């Protein structure tokens, strides 16, 4: 089946929905989700969204905190854009109906997180993302110009390649004409032609064994964009959140927000000793790369699977007012946080790299934009500052909306795009080939491309990934579309890109720590 729309938006998290709402005033929109609209990383966000609200905080402090966390690789111009535009964009979220907690004096209640020199995190209890999703979903569902397609899996971006013309990375004329999508319920591949396409597919945490991300996070957007010959950047920087609840077997891992440490939670080893001051003067509130590496070092040195997060000294009422869900969750598995420290361990959390964009969210492919976790705008550099990602999605979706709506009247639908061709293929009948390769990939990435890396581990990872790549490409070329197979194929592509970029970086910086090059190079 063929559809036509002015704007195709792939992804229903904050990046996709906020973009859709803004461009829907200028044309027709199709909004895709590969599962249901509400299954997103956005929905799980806890701590909140960073923005300067009251003195003594100011924009320069937020800029400097972001630059310090990014360890020399942030694009300062982009950092200043995001920080300056944050207050106005938060206001648009509030106008869409999202609620943020207020103190009894009517002012916003601001949380603090690692790497922030001031309290500046707007939040709704410990379920900020769910609150944002609630507000945006209501708007999106009632907008007459937005057609929602759930269980619709984007397979590949359509470019000149699908007109039979050769396309090379670096070619400045590549154009995006829409996407091939798999309608899961009708078991059919559709062609969606669009004038503008927004990639808002989120992260890739599921390429690792232990992650805070939901199962949708398989890196589809990055893989699709790379196959279409877009540039990707900074993909060696995968952020581990220092504190996921240690609860073996639970997937995704339940996050213990960094704001818990902002309220006074202290990290300790299992014998009750504090350790973070050995690693950074900011202690438990150092930036994430430092805290996650410190925990990893302590666990490895002591041969233990977790460290403790002690909140027993925090006023119980205040704690539960801020973190009702975290408190309930821990209680449900036997930990009363008022009485006992809880076990925590780092987990894969956020992809700092992604599809390269300019300051308007435009990728290196014409009429293809990217926003949110799939994008690399230059904001995060080598390590994202906590609660800057919801903000980045909001600011860049707005910028992309302004840029793309300016162009839309001059754009036309591309003619001559052929329907998806799967002649000679058959349904994959041995699912074990796919599930086993997925597990192998997750093991490889976890064991060899984790918080601490070495040249030998990464070489081994690359060799193993190459075997999985060959096997999976063979299977893919013989098979009809299957979501699990496509996700595996995408995850392999992203894993390959991470290892390739990590091997090229002959230094340790931010989230990339290589024992063979433990020092930083000078940034030129
Ligand atoms: P997502 O919200 O993940 O949405 C991705 C969308 O893309 C989904 O709708 C999915 O169905 C769709 N999609 C993916 N692939 C395809 C495909 N092939 N076809 C069709 N659709 C597809 N950040 C903060 O700033 N503050 C926080 O407090 C915070 N807390 C977090 C807590 C947790 C547990 C996690 C996991 C993340 C947290 N983050 C936080 C990070 C932040 O939530 C994410 O980076 C951000 O929400 C990403 O938004 P997004 O719109 O880019 O992607
Ligand atoms: C958290 O609440 O700790 C997550 C915040 C983030 O990922 O930015």
Describe this structure in words.
With 524 residues, the protein is an alpha/beta fold. The chain has 3 domains: 294 residues, FAD/NAD(P)-binding domain (3-Layer(bba) Sandwich), CATH 3.50.50; 91 residues, Flavocytochrome C3, Chain A, domain 1; 83 residues, Fumarate reductase/succinate dehydrogenase flavoprotein-like, C-terminal domain (Methane Monooxygenase Hydroxylase, Chain G, domain 1, Up-down Bundle). It is built from 14 helices and 16 strands. The strands form 4 sheets. Strands 1, 2, 5, 6, 7, 8 and 15 form a 7-stranded mixed beta sheet that branches. Helix 1 links the parallel strand 1 and strand 2. The protein is globular and about 65 Å long. The model has no long low-confidence stretch (mean pLDDT 97). The chain binds flavin-adenine dinucleotide (FAD) and succinic acid. Succinic acid binds next to helix 7. The site of flavin-adenine dinucleotide has 42 residues, from helix 1, helix 2, helix 5, strand 6 and helix 6.
């Amino acid at each position: 089946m063929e559809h036509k729309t002015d704007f195709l938006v792939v992804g229903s998290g904050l990046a996709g929905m906020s973009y859709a709402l803004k461009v829907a005033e200028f044309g027709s929109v199709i909004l895709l989700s590969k599962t249901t609209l509400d299954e997103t990383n956005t929905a799980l966000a806890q701590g909140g969204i960073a923005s300067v609200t009251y003195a003594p905080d100011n924009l320069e402090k937020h800029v400097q905190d972001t630059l310090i966390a990014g360890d020399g690789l942030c694009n300062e111009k982009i950092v200043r854009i995001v920080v300056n535009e944050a207050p106005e964009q938060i206001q648009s979220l509030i106008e869409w109906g999202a609620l943020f907690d207020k103190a009894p004096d009517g002012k916003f209640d601001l949380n603090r997180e690692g790497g922030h020199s001031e309290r500046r995190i707007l939040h709704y209890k410990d379920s900020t993302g769910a609150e944002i999703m609630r507000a945006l979903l209501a708007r999106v569902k009632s907008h007459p110009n937005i057609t929602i397609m759930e269980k619709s899996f984007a397979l590949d971006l359509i470019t000149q390649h699908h007109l039979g013309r050769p396309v090379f990375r670096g070619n400045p004329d590549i154009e995006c004409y829409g996407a091939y999508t798999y309608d899961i319920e009708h078991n059919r591949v559709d062609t969606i032609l669009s004038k503008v396409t927004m990639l808002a597919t989120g992260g890739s945490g599921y390429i690792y064994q232990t992650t805070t991300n939901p199962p949708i996070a398989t890196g589809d957007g990055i893989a699709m964009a790379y196959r279409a010959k877009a540039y990707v950047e900074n993909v060696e920087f995968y952020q581990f959140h220092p504190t996921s609840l240690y609860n073996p077997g639970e997937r995704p891992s339940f996050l213990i927000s960094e704001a818990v440490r902002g309220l006074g939670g202290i990290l300790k080893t299992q014998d009750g000793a504090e350790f973070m001051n050995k690693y950074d003067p900011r202690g438990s509130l150092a930036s994430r790369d430092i805290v996650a590496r410190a925990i990893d070092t302590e666990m490895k040195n002591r041969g233990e699977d977790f460290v403790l997060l002690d909140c027993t000294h925090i006023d119980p009422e205040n704690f539960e007012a801020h973190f009702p869900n975290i408190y309930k969750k821990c209680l449900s598995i036997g930990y009363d946080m008022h009485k006992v420290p809880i076990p925590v361990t780092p987990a894969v959390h956020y992809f700092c790299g992604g599809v390269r964009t300019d300051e308007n969210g435009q990728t290196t492919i014409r009429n293809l934009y990217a926003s949110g976790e799939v994008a690399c705008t230059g904001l995060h550099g080598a390590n994202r500052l906590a609660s800057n990602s919801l903000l980045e999605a909001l600011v860049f979706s707005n910028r992309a909306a302004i840029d793309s709506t300016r162009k839309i009247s001059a754009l036309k639908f591309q003619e001559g795009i052929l329907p998806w061709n799967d002649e000679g293929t058959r349904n994959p009948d041995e699912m074990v080939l796919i599930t086993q390769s997925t597990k192998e990939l997750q093991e490889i990435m976890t064991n060899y491309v984790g918080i601490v890396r070495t040249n030998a581990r990464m070489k081994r990872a690359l060799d193993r990934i190459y075997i999985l790549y060959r096997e999976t490409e063979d299977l893919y070329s013989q098979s009809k579309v299957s979501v699990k197979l496509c996700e595996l194929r995408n995850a392999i592509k992203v894993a390959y890109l991470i290892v390739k970029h990590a091997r090229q970086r002959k230094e340790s910086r931010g989230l990339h720590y290589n024992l063979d090059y433990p020092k930083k190079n000078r940034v030129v």
